């Protein structure tokens, strides 16, 4: 039974857990559990020193928030601390939480207008062509290290595949990939280099827009430029930022976490160590236990209200704790027989802002994992499972490294 401490005001900055403590740790469920034991399903946390927010960890509570745009806005202009200047303009939170002219940060009619180019672009994807491209990409990446007998399945593989796939859809050449990848890594890290990373990403995309205006091609950059819903180059650029950054980070994390699971959990690894469950089961298990976005920024209360016993003031920021909500006993049990077919997880959120790209994301992730398990024989993780560390971020839990060894392609 939870023994909670209430009431609390976000103006009180004493004794708050950092949000990053729920992601940069060995046991996120224990961290979320500690918060719920003390505060209940809505807990005060610190985004960075001096910047508090509410972390919403209940499944029903998150669904209430994401389905009510009239009370909970996605627009950061409604964030009280941002308007008061309490968040530094140079804050590492900026690229993830400051206003942008794209669908992620808009509500109502503006959100629908800015989301349409993303939905249209995704609907127009040739799935068979995309599948062939991804399979070829995965095979070529593995060929690069197959003779070594060793690889890092994050930096040599999982981090590269979605960048090549998604950047390719926008017509971005391989010469831009590494620079774009470094910029996105910094952006999602929300650290001291976050703003610089964001500037790198925006510069690369601005150059792509200029090139496609001069020479249109059959790619998503050209499609965004010609879409009637996007009013100017800034909206085009920011819509590209949204689609590329969200698609890259979430898919990279999903691939890496699924590979980690297949290599370390005896329930899975059907082709690794005789486990009973396969790739699709592992993909779904990751969505429940380690979703690509563990904590999602943000909603802003448009009026005073109460959520799960906590008094939320107008202008308060609410972070959606998807990983915590997926463990909510009201929707998820530990009984595998009761969980067959359960798709109530919030890995893709819900409501008007639910992720539009979960199907292409699954396509990329499944092919990447399946190809690695087919092509790498006798593969084993070279470090104990409990020594797998995650890349620093308050939002995601992507393994930093997955060093593996396997029978090299040249072995007899």
CATH superfamily caption: Cytochrome P450
- How far apart, in Å, are the first and last alpha carbons? 59 Å
Tell me the series of helices and strands, N- to C-terminal.
Answer: EHEEHEHHHHEHHHHHHHEEEEHHEE
Give the structural class: alpha+beta
* Helix amount: 40-55%
The overall number of domains is: 1
Instruction: Summarize the biggest pleated sheet.
Output: 6 strands, mixed
Strand order, sheet with most strands: 1-2-3-9-6-4
The CATH topology is what?
Cytochrome p450
Q: Would you report the number of β strands?
A: 11
Based on CA atoms alone, the radius of gyration comes out at: 21 Å
CATH architecture group name: Orthogonal Bundle
Q: What is the percentage of strand-forming residues?
A: 5-15%
Structure commentary:
The chain has 412 residues and is of the alpha+beta class. It has helices spanning 28-39, 59-66, 80-83, 94-97, 108-123, 127-145, 154-158, 161-169, 174-189, 194-214, 220-226, 233-264, 279-289, 322-326, 358-375; strands at 17-18, 42-48, 51-56, 72-73, 150-152, 295-301, 305-307, 310-312, 317-321, 377-381, 403-407. Helix 6 packs parallel to helix 15. The chain starts with 16 loop residues before the first strand and ends in a 5-residue tail after the last strand. This is Cytochrome P450. Belongs to the cytochrome P450 family.
